[in-house]
Design a protein that fits this description.
This protein is α/β, with parallel strands linked by helices. It has 2 domains: 156 residues, Alpha/beta knot (3-Layer(aba) Sandwich); 73 residues. The chain is elongated, with a radius of gyration of 29 Å.
Length: 241
């Protein structure tokens, strides 16, 4: 799936900056605008790591977007009150996400309306789908950046997770040498504590099973080794006195 975002006559630099930042958060790069009126320099301040998204934004008309994308998803806070009002017959964000997810290689563009008055009926008429976020209150109008955050989040829930590069310092799994060292100290403390010899094989097996289930990191195992080492030294000192 490929997704872009379009802003119709954006006025406020804060919203535009936040939209670019959100797009960066969710891995979207293509931003389009129709007849923009915002302060470009001020918007950059709010874009954070999405500055490149903002810098590459293109000014187009809705008619051009209509030709460019397979499916335009219009957004509105006003639901249809009549079955005859086909233009405002809407879907939920969850339904929108499922449609996008199941559409394969189709190109989608989410169209956000004016901060003051949203999308007009003629503009909604150019869209294939109309999405409404039901706030469960009489006040349904949302800030465009807030609305986009909810929509992109719903879409992201159906996308396969991107593997996060692990940090070697904190995420390296314990090696067999680490585990062997831990088992040596388990046995040493068991011997110093006069643990029943016939139960030691069961103890070893239980500890190994716990390790296998939890997949500890090197840091986890070394913390346990440190604890057992100090415990062994304390027991040895006690026995000397």
């Amino acid at each position: 799936m490929a997704i872009a975002v379009a802003l119709v006559e954006p006025q406020y630099h804060v919203n535009v900056g936040h939209v670019a930042r959100l797009m960066k958060n969710f891995g979207l790069r293509r931003l389009y605008m129709t007849n923009p009126h915002y302060d470009e320099m001020e918007a950059v301040r709010y874009a954070m790591h999405g500055k490149d998204v903002l810098a590459s934004a293109k000014v187009v008309t809705l008619e051009q977007l209509r030709k460019k994308f397979d499916i335009l998803v219009g957004t509105t806070a006003i639901k249809a009150t009549s079955r005859l009002n086909v233009l405002r017959e809407s879907i939920t964000p969850e339904q929108m996400a499922e449609i996008i997810h199941d559409a394969g290689s189709k190109d989608f563009c989410i169209v956000l309306g004016r901060e003051s008055s949203g999308l007009k009926n003629k503009e909604l008429g150019l869209c294939d789908l109309v999405c409404v976020i039901d706030t469960k209150t009489k006040y349904r109008t949302m800030n465009i950046a807030h609305a986009l955050a909810l929509l992109l989040y719903e879409i992201s829930k159906l996308k396969p997770e991107v593997p996060v590069k692990k940090s070697k310092k904190t995420m390296d799994l314990a090696s067999q040498e680490d585990i062997d060292l831990l088992m040596q100290y388990v046995d040493r403390v068991a011997d110093l504590g006069n643990y029943d010899s016939h139960k030691k094989p069961l103890l070893d097996a239980a500890v190994k099973k716990m390790i296998a289930k939890s997949a500890p990191t090197t840091k986890d195992v070394m913390l346990l080794v440190s604890l057992l080492r100090k415990s062994a030294l304390a027991i040895e000192r006690q026995k000397k006195h």
